[in-house]
Amino acid sequence: MKIGFTLKPRNAQIDDIKKQLVFFEQMGAGSVEVPLYELDVLCGKKIVIEELNFLQKTLKPSTLKFSLHGSISVNLMDEEYLEEHKEILKRDIEVSEAINSKILVTHFGYTNIENYKNKEKYKKLLKNQTEIYFKMAEYAKSHNVILAIENIFPFTPTSYAPLPNEIAEEISSLNHPNAKTTIDFSHAYLNCTHNKVDFIEQIKTMVPLTRHLHIHDSFGRLKKMYTYMHSEDVTYGQGDIHLPLGWGNIPYEKIFSKFLFSPDIFLNFELADRYKRYYQSSYEAAKKLILLMK
């Protein structure tokens, strides 16, 4: 299992990645996740060749394995901008191949509460997305890339994000070797708590399909109260606050004691630079979690 961290370039500066790669190599990490969503490699739905070349040059000397997190805004349940989302996902796949990342993390779609309550409409949106995912999985296959489709949570009070069991059902129905899943434990915790369903049982449905993990902590409380800045969200314990393990209350020991994840999986910490001094302890905590599976 490859323990790693998401790279954090400031203001889309690929130069920042160089020192971070060395830092993680010296720590003993096995992988890093490249955040395409924080770079300017894509512009106007096209690849900026100069930026991609610079990214390739920067990553090439590293001994780490790479996964790529594609554009966060891609939403294949968004009818209004669907064609644009499809084009961006194709570009994400192409960039993933270009940097020798066999894993592309992309978010499962979401919709609004009104569409969710209209069951016929909701089923239609899911069915259409699943059909698109099959085509995208075929495109990914031709580029030697696996889609690792990530569970999310409602970003706004008027949104509905499908639960992990819904994602597992849709991706299972594809039965495509290049369409797998990413479990984001905090996203699942937030969504399951919000919808009053069993978090562990929901996670269970995605485990057999999962090739990538996003690990960070939270309290399972959607952000509802206005706060002045992110630090105050941390203060009140609300939202997807990406905390070091142990700061929130996600039951990671229970999860890793109960489930057996694939041995070639990416276990990736999504921690901001503000928690850099906790990277090493997070790495050590991950090794202990992996031992629980054995």
In short:
With 294 residues, the chain is α/β, with parallel strands linked by helices. It has helices at residues 15-27, 49-59, 82-98, 113-117, 119-142, 164-174, 185-195, 199-206, 230-236, 252-258, 279-293, and strands spanning 2-6, 31-35, 42-43, 46-47, 65-69, 103-107, 111-112, 146-150, 159-160, 179-184, 210-215, 266-269.
Task: Explain how this protein is built.
The protein has 294 residues and is of the alpha/beta class. Helices cover 44% and strands 17% of the residues. Helix 1 links the parallel strand 1 and strand 2. The radius of gyration is 18 Å and the shape is globular. The model has no long low-confidence stretch (mean pLDDT 97).
Note the main attributes of this structure.
8-stranded parallel beta barrel, two-stranded antiparallel ribbon, 12 strands, alpha/beta, 294 residues
Unreliable runs: none
Query: N- to C-terminal separation?
Result: 12 Å
* Helix-and-strand structural type: alpha/beta
Give the integer mean of the pLDDT values.
Answer: 97
Strands, helices and their partners?
Elements: E1 2-6, H1 15-27, E2 31-35, E3 42-43, E4 46-47, H2 49-59, E5 65-69, H3 82-98, E6 103-107, E7 111-112, H4 113-117, H5 119-142, E8 146-150, E9 159-160, H6 164-174, E10 179-184, H7 185-195, H8 199-206, E11 210-215, H9 230-236, H10 252-258, E12 266-269, H11 279-293
Parallel strand pairs: 1-2, 1-12, 2-5, 5-6, 6-8, 8-10, 10-11, 11-12
Antiparallel strand pairs: 3-4, 7-9
Helix pairs in contact: 3-5, 5-6, 6-8, 10-11
